[in-house]
Design a protein that fits this description.
The chain is of the alpha+beta class. It has two helices and four strands; from the N terminus they run βαββαβ. The chain has a single domain, classed as 2-Layer Sandwich (Alpha-Beta Plaits). Strands 2-3-1-4 form a four-stranded antiparallel beta sheet.
């Protein structure tokens, strides 16, 4: 099964559009949306497992210039 997570992202003032564009081109990022509230962007990411999601966030997402903070929320699937 593929692991999925939502990454809540805070961005430095004036950098949201550039960060959005960079995220949209990042392997493993399924979608990116600008949002209102305490966070600026939300990205849906997928990888082979939750460890791979952690590496994606640490190595590819948090290193994008302008990102100041991330919170990763792993998706849990309930079995019927």
């Amino acid at each position: 099964m593929i692991a999925t997570a939502y990454v809540l992202i805070n961005v430095a003032a004036g950098r949201t559009k550039k960060v959005y564009q960079k995220l949209a081109l990042t392997d493993g990022v399924v979608s990116v949306d600008a949002i209102s509230g305490p966070h600026d962007l939300i990205a849906t990411v997928q990888a082979s497992d939750f460890n791979a999601i952690g590496r994606l966030v640490l190595d590819r997402i948090q290193t994008i210039e302008g990102i100041t903070d991330t919170t990763t929320c792993n998706v849990i699937h309930f079995e019927a």
